[in-house]
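Subject: complex prediction, re-run

Hi both,

The earlier run crashed halfway through, so I resubmitted it with identical inputs.
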Amino acid sequence: MSGPLRARVALVLATSALACDPLPRLDTVEAQVGEGFEYCNWTPISPDSAALFDVSEGLEIKEAVGVALTVGGYWTNPESTTLFPLYGVVAATSSAPDVVDVFSAPNNGVALLARKPGTAVITFTLAGHPGSVDAPITVTPSASFIDVEEAPLPSEGGGGGGTGGAGGGS
Amino acid sequence: MPVGLLIAAGCDDESEPEPRQPDVVLVGGLGRATFTYGCAGPGDAQCDLDADLAPLRESSPFPLLAVGSQFRLAAEGAAYGPLDLDSASPDFLALDADGLTLTASRAGIASVVAARGGTPVDFANIELVEPAALKILQATPQGSFKGVDLDFGNGSVSATAQTVVTFKFRAVVTDADDVLLAGALPCNWATSDANVASITSDPAENIVTVVSGQSGTATVSVTYGAFTGSITIAVGS
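This time it finished cleanly. Structure:
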């Protein structure tokens, strides 16, 4: 291989390496429920952030209700296990739109429509970043849904995590 | 003097104003659309805001809807203009073919979706409640004279005539907590004796006008949704 050719191959390899330099990977999505929060149950991230939950922990919604979420995507530094917020447009798709339909809105808003009892997995992705997060959603029949009394109001939590504040209930 | 008041009321023969529609708006959960309430029929407690018989205020929060009733919504988004409606769960809230009228079928919280070109834009949750009781509201009776023979003198008024009293009643339903429910329910008024108490308005409206006639007793009854009720009207000689 000639010298100039070797140089060009090296340049291509270096460029390729740069192109493959991994962007932070979406591995965590936190959410806060706005409209419809009184018809949902979730497990808070912590007592200090009672309104926030990790979507991978799942969400229970009462049948036929619509729910507005404000979501935030994060990358976990493997060395420090610290969450770093990622910025971009969040997209969400449902494994069973006839059970839980989903559509996105500006400012990291996501609406879930609990169309009928059952389960569905909502997959969150972030434009420009690899990775995805699955959120198991359970739709409970209207007659058997039990509103957990301790379900936090959006205004009661929200300190940590960095997700945007959602509005109040209906 | 009470007679004079009755005359004034009876001479007020202007036509009824158009029923006013409520200005009740629900903002979508994502803040991108508004849902404005409308009346789907004549038997809605949220509509016909007659001063005496307006159980739900014009600026009330979005009302609870009676199961079995119909109502209308108009969805609009500032960035979109008029939007199409869809129901997240037709088992609870069914959208009619006109795309505007909704029928409450089951008790619960039901989400209505505003969409453009089939793409959802926003949603709103509406509470549907099973009616528990019927209430009949009564407006202030209005009087007039039939076969008038009046004398207006200095400081005195006299009348020799058969008095005709016009009553107005309204049928509404409430939930178990006595909260009035909106939505148009099938309604029918009837009288047991039209000579004593005649119904002069559309009996399918939840507001009825009853005019007294000859002496006797009549029962004015109403079927409103799944409920029935009645009022006894006694006309003296």
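Residues 83 and 114 of chain B are 6 Å apart (CA to CA).

- K.
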